[in-house]
């Protein structure tokens, strides 16, 4: 009895796959936006905030970066109800993914921010730009441009890591695959299929980030030329 | 659940394989074996008489399947099956000799004449019925939907509309629940029993679908959210196993089970080991 492939056995489960894919895409898009937004705030405050704030955010970043994602997720979903804080599965997934992406991205961004020469900021102030203006144009946007490729990779890692949220019963792509596999026992077909879907998602994400980057950092690229 | 259909199948196949090897070995010493076999058959012509004349009943019980049978902190076997064995021996007025067995070797112990009865959370199925005989049901074993609130009840699966139920993905209870639950029920599937139980204990799901054995285990660990049965998904009670063609012994065992059901002994055992009354449909 050799291995036989039968992708037709997946046909009755198309709606599950679509539902799973939709959840994964929505989770990824929303957490990428919130996570990167939070990362900017964390990175800024870790450099410019009050000492207690720098210390506290440092703690958050280190705890997040030095513990497994699944443990963070389980803590939010299974642990917090012990304190009377009950968060449903999908919200727990949003929170865990956002906090995770923000912690890593804040560190990446902080590297980009630290690379800004002090003289540049002073020059901007001397030219009459406000604090906010100078920070935005001279520090933040160039910092973003500098570390952009690393941020793309980090966001993709979080998208791939989102497979873990199936463990708290979020109906994502991996949950759909596990579900189908438990019904038709066609593990090879179903996991091969979602492997390809994740691969396409990752390629697609990189493409989308590149397009956005080309627009947002257009003047930066002109400058470097 | 303890035994998945696949796991059970494997153990049966494993058992058949062993039986087969045994037959081949016997064939090699043909004359001797045939002589021995007929002698042992004659000795067990009536197991009930043999037990009474011996004054001892040998009962195979589990030691690795709480709450049916496990080894206590005092190193003595304890559990529903052990109490049942004690009850049978007491009522028959004979000394009890416990033989601890595993789920794989409990039937061979019976067939090779090393045990008179198997009280080892044995479920009925056609393969087993071909090999041995069964008594009436003596212990509840079922899959159901449980609630943390003992006062909550449903008429039928429609009562689970708009509720969340946690279940272990791919388990028999998942299949049964998926068949009966209304569309508006959210079935949250988890990787393993431990995670499913966590979801129930932390209140992340309204109800949990699992076996009564697991429910008893949860009740023992966390009495604040002790699961109580709302709806039975699948009933497969346990029976006492005995050798084929032992009508007298079978009748005696059935009489004692009926008596225990009547006088509340079985319900007491259920209370002690499953923290719950016998289900309403038990013994019917």
TrEMBL record, chain A:
It is a multi-pass membrane protein. This is Polar amino acid ABC transporter permease. SUPFAM superfamilies: MetI-like. The chain crosses the membrane at residues 20-45, 155-176, 188-205. Residues 21-209 form the ABC transmembrane type-1 domain. PROSITE patterns: ABC_TM1. Gene3D superfamilies: MetI-like. It is found in: Cell inner membrane; Cell membrane. It comes from Vreelandella lutescens. InterPro entries: AA_ABC_transptr_permease_3TM, ArtM/GltK/GlnP/TcyL/YhdX-like, MetI-like, MetI-like_sf. Belongs to the binding-protein-dependent transport system permease family. HisMQ subfamily. The lineage of its organism: Bacteria, Pseudomonadati, Pseudomonadota, Gammaproteobacteria, Oceanospirillales. Keywords: Amino-acid transport, Cell membrane, Membrane, Transmembrane, Transmembrane helix, Transport. The keyword Membrane applies. The keyword Nuclease does not apply.
From TrEMBL, chain B:
Keywords: Signal. The keyword Signal applies. It comes from Vreelandella lutescens. Gene3D superfamilies: Periplasmic binding protein-like II (3.40.190.10). PANTHER family: AMINO ACID ABC TRANSPORTER SUBSTRATE-BINDING PROTEIN, MEMBRANE-BOUND LYTIC MUREIN TRANSGLYCOSYLASE F. Belongs to the bacterial solute-binding protein 3 family. CDD domains: PBP2_SMa0082_like (cd01072). It is found in: Cell envelope. Pfam families: SBP_bac_3. Residues 56-277 form the Solute-binding protein family 3/N-terminal domain. SMART domains: PBPb. The keyword Signal applies. This is Amino acid ABC transporter substrate-binding protein.
